[in-house]
UniProtKB/TrEMBL annotation, chain A:
The keyword Membrane applies. The keyword Cell membrane applies. This is Nitrate transport ATP-binding subunits C and D. It comes from marine gamma proteobacterium HTCC2143. It is found in: Cell membrane. GO terms for molecular function: ATP binding; ATP hydrolysis activity; nitrate transmembrane transporter activity. Belongs to the ABC transporter superfamily. It is a peripheral membrane protein. Keywords: ATP-binding, Cell membrane, Membrane, Nucleotide-binding, Transport. Residues 6-239 form the ABC transporter domain. PROSITE patterns: ABC_TRANSPORTER_1 (PS00211), ABC_TRANSPORTER_2 (PS50893).
């Protein structure tokens, strides 16, 4: 656990009130390795967004610490780029200027030509070379989110935080941008932490999926390793023999088990699961020992 | 079918002709029953009742005034252009001074909830005071009628700008502020690169309200302080019983007020954005 690039330890968020304090989530432990793509799924109200905002430095936890690269996270930083669900583009700037805004903040000694070249390169990666002078209001939702993604990648943060980036998009657009995200992630090998509600999206993108139980008192209940080989795309992924096994497991969790009382255990989440049978055996054993420890 | 603009213009023209025609028709002197001597004509003997001059006379007078707007024949006889220039100078000086105070102060109030609460009682008490109520105090303290008029413009234009700036700054979407925070922008950079452009349309709205009020107030202020300016001119012509000039200057006040608003409207268009 101590070797992880990003470490979330004992994180809790409590909203105090006169009658009864509301514990949104408690004792959340997450470890993310360098270059890993981690998705987190859970029902609304389990505090996923709060966890992401704490990682970003925009919110503060009641208890617990977040460290990245052996340094404690306190306050926002360019080392952690954020893509918000509502795009968060500045409406008075055009596409290129919005990306320039991020690049200028990151590389403060660059001249305007270097900034524009760098921004254009990342806008080309998301297929927006034709829309450089358009204002956000003239772009579709999908295009706006592409600009936002380009801005985040162009600042080359050490950790990229995506807060339901495709939540407001229609299914077709979402698919296209997911493929683009895989491509750009493959080229840059970013460490990514992403919130999503979409099980298929999580399987397509993630190395690992964290499942959260329902709030209040939410926890990270399971950590599911997705060992479907890369490169993945929407067409070939459903042919993988493990795909539906994973999918059923996730859906089953969200529908049946997310509201159950889960045994608290040390380490990350309660249960770790892999669909690879050989690995599954190992995890089964560790789970049993974890439960045994928890029972004592 | 002609465009909406063309049709609207046609209707405007019809309204103008009807109202102007009524005004013209209702203000004709009665026909004289007998030939009057030159002396009787001069004393208005033909018409015992004073009448509002009809538009034909006002327009003729306007033509005369506008063809030589900058003449200066002593303290009580200056061209309309000179009078308007004095008024504009006072309005613009007072307005710019007010903007220099109100916009930075509005930023502080908008960004700091503490300052908002601390300053709010002062604003609420000072804002409803009629700007002309300040005039005696201003005359006593400043001891200069010209500068007192400018002060009155300053004090009346400050409130809409202050309140709108504070409102615009306080209501900048938190997403945009978060963008600034995640990009490690300093307070000053955030203020200029994110909050100012985000609040600019609201600030400009405040400035338009302010310049409108300033132009309303200058007329009254100049009636009080006298000497020069369009307000003084209106009152002076009333004392001269020259209603032609009074009506003409009323029209000029309206036109200049419209131009001031249009100028700021053009600036507002430049900073507008669509979400």
């Amino acid at each position: 656990m101590s070797k992880h690039f990003v470490r979330v330890e004992g994180l809790s968020k409590v909203y105090p009130s006169k009658q009864k304090d509301t514990v949104v989530f408690e004792d959340v432990n997450i470890g993310i390795d360098k270059g890993e793509f981690v998705c987190i799924i859970g029902h609304s109200g389990c505090g996923k967004s709060t966890i992401l905002n704490v990682l970003a430095g925009l919110d503060e936890p009641t208890l617990g610490v977040v460290t990245m690269d052996e340094k404690e996270v306190s306050g926002p930083s360019l080392d952690r780029g954020v893509v918000f669900q509502n795009y968060s583009l500045l409406p008075w700037l055009n596409t290129l200027e919005n990306v320039n805004f991020g690049v200028k903040a990151r590389f403060r000694d660059w001249n305007s030509k270097q900034v524009a070249e760098h921004s254009s390169k990342f806008l080309a990666m998301v297929g927006l070379s034709e829309a450089l002078t358009k204002k956000p209001s003239e772009l579709s939702g999908g295009m706006r989110q592409r600009v936002s993604i380009a801005r985040a990648f162009a600042t080359s943060p050490k950790l990229l935080l995506l807060d339901e980036p495709f939540g407001a998009l229609d299914a077709l657009t979402r698919g296209v941008i997911q493929d683009e995200l895989i491509k750009i992630w493959g080229e840059t090998q970013q460490t990514v932490f992403m919130i999503t509600h979409d099980v298929d999206e999580a399987i397509l993108l993630a190395d690992r999926i964290l499942l959260m139980s329902n709030g209040p008192n939410a926890r990270v209940a399971e950590s599911v390793v997705i060992d479907i080989p890369r490169p993945r795309n929407r067409a070939n992924i459903i042919e993988d023999p493990h795909y539906y096994k994973i999918r059923n497991h996730l859906v089953n969790f969200l529908i049946n088990r997310s509201s159950d009382e889960l045994p608290s255990a040390d380490g990350e989440g309660g249960v770790t699961l892999s669909v690879n049978p050989a690995r599954q055996e190992i995890f089964k054993k560790t789970n049993e020992s974890i439960k045994a420890i928890a029972a004592n | 079918m002609a465009s909406l603009n063309a049709r609207a213009m046609l209707v405007s023209l019809v309204i103008l002709l009807v109202l102007g025609g009524l005004w013209e028709a209702l203000n004709q002197p009665p026909p004289a029953s007998k030939q009057l001597t030159e002396y009787e004509l001069m004393m208005g003997a033909a018409d015992q009742q004073a009448r509002v001059p009809p538009p034909s006379k006002v327009l003729a007078h306007a033509w005369k005034e506008l063809s030589n707007p900058f003449y200066d024949a002593g303290p009580n006889d200056k061209g309309i252009g000179i009078q308007l220039a004095y008024s504009l100078y006072r309005v613009i000086t007072g307005f710019v001074a007010a903007a220099l105070v109100a916009i930075p102060l509005g930023f502080v109030i908008g960004m700091s909830p503490l300052m908002h609460r601390a300053l709010n009682p002062f604003i609420q008490v000072l804002r409803p005071i009629s700007p002309l109520a300040w005039m005696p105090l201003a005359l006593f303290v400043i001891r200069d009628s010209e500068q007192s008029a400018i002060f009155v413009i300053f004090i009346c234009s400050i409130w809409p700008m202050l309140i709108n700036t504070a409102f615009g700054v306080a209501n900048v979407r938190s997403d945009w502020v978060n963008v600034a925070r995640t990009h490690e922008l300093s307070q000053l950079q955030t203020a200029f690169q994110v909050i100012l452009p985000a609040a600019a349309p609201t600030i400009l709205t405040g400035m338009r309200i302010s310049i409108g009020i300033a132009w309303l107030v200058i007329v009254a202020a100049e009636m009080l302080v006298g000497g020069t300016g369009i307000g003084y001119y209106v009152w002076n012509e009333w004392n001269n019983l020259d209603l032609n000039s009074v009506i003409f200057s009323i029209l000029m006040i309206g036109i200049i007020g419209m131009l001031l608003d249009m100028a700021l409207g053009t600036v507002a268009k430049l900073v507008e954005y669509e979400e």
